Amino acid sequence: MEAVGTWALLLFLLLLLLSLALPASRARGHLPPGPAVLPLLGNLLQLRPGELYAGLLRLSQKYGPVFTVHLGPWRRVVVLVGHKAVQEALGDQAEEFSGRGTLATLDQTFNGHGVFFANGERWRQLRKFTMLALRDLGMGKREGEEVIQAEVQRLVEAFQGTEGRPFDPSLLLAQATSNIVCSLLFGLRFSYEDEEFQAVIRAAGGTLMGISSPWGQTYEMFSWLLRPLPGPHTQLLRHLDTLAAFTTRQVQQHQGDLDTSGPARDLVDAFLLKMAKEKENSNTEFTEKNLLMTVTYLLFAGTMTTGATVRYALLLLLKYPDVQKQVQEELRRELPEGQAPSLQDRARLPFTDAVLHEAQRLLALVPLGMPHVTTRTTCFRGYMLPKGTEVFPLLGSVLHDPTVFEQPEEFNPGRFLDAEGRFKKPKAFLPYSLGKRICLGEGLAQAELFVFFAAILQAFSLDSPCPPDALSLQPAVSGLFNIPPAFQLQVRPADLHPSTQTR
Ligand code: HEM
User: Fold this and answer.
1) Is residue 190 included in any domain, yes or no?
2) Is the CB of 310 under 6 A from ligand 1?
3) Is residue 498 in some structural domain?
4) Which sites bind heme (predicted)?
């Protein structure tokens, strides 16, 4: 017992010494200024878990748009706040800022594999391949749009099935958007009643919650301490295991019935064909691990991002019924009766488009941005950032930058319209980030958001069992992701063409 106590004391002293040595390293690298670092705690006093983003914004008021913090004693991060700083780094010095940083909550599973977590040559090859393969499979083309239109039709039918009763639309929206990515990845769509599919959606939701929760934020600071201890990360690992096991089963099925003469039916096929082509290359990045980790991340991103954004847009329309009315009037005026909304209609539906963009801006789905690292020693605004410096580009602060968006906390779709009522997009509208790591699913997400939103509003009038004043727009959880609050929705058929219906 005594020996254990002595070892614990020695370990504590060692950690203390190591963390005391840290502040000096900031001066060596000519890093941006920041708050004093406490031994073992880093900047925990300024950055309380659960409000990491708010804490970073508070620090930027004191230290300016570029500053340094310590998440825990050793994780040193340079933070970029506001459109100008993020644009100058990720946009103007794109190559230098193109490395992927750490997500302690997920690193144990992905371990530098797959397109999201990879760096260097591995990332370059996986990114190029994934982009081209998804494009060949119809992403950004008419075929891809048809898949989205067919899925939204099923979603509309499922909404109809509620017959005016209040329901939480989260699961159905996540399933519908997931089906689109499942069709690209596995060539499959799943019934909304399929229990295995529902378990996958719940696992993706649990992963999102786990990495964004206050505990997830604490883990980003103290993973070295928390990893060996029991805690919520065992639950997160279970969710990730469910996603990975589902992906593995799909890959195994594809391996069983792959037609080696092609063409690829989906992304898994395309990857397997590429693996076969490169099997003599001992340095190939087209390995089973990279296949599984690329597909698992795409499944997660395709399930949790667009569904949550559409959900938030619907919530805003419940909160602002006049805006809902204006969207429906535009749809009635511009779309011929019985015609499903398509991307080609976008130019004729500037108000609908503006509402959707304003919802995306206000939500700021990824407020902290995803972590980057510098790929070489980088001179930025007079500071010298050593190779490997972690960088958080705060996308929430770009989307809510008061120098670009007047009264940024207000819901005002008009900011996306010019004086003639045409759609305009400010340069600071960057929910997908920018530069070399810009979201790989941006085109798909934009197409899904528009077609889903327009089709739902074309089919239904939306109501809430609560009065608009009682609806909160505050995220249920705000961390790596802003997760919109849950709410009850009621739908009834929209009276879009009253004149023709009464004839
Ligand atoms: C509203 C929807 C979405 C938003 C707001 C969004 C946002 C983002 C952001 C902020 C990043 C980090 C970029 C950076 O590192 O600076 C990212 C990366 C990524 N996203 Fe999305 N995303 C969305 C939907 C999707 C979808 C539908 C997919 C794919 C099916 C996807 C796949 C990816 C991938 C693979 C990356 C990593 C890219 C790389 O590291 O090279 N995203 N996304």
Assistant:
1) yes
2) no
3) no
4) 439
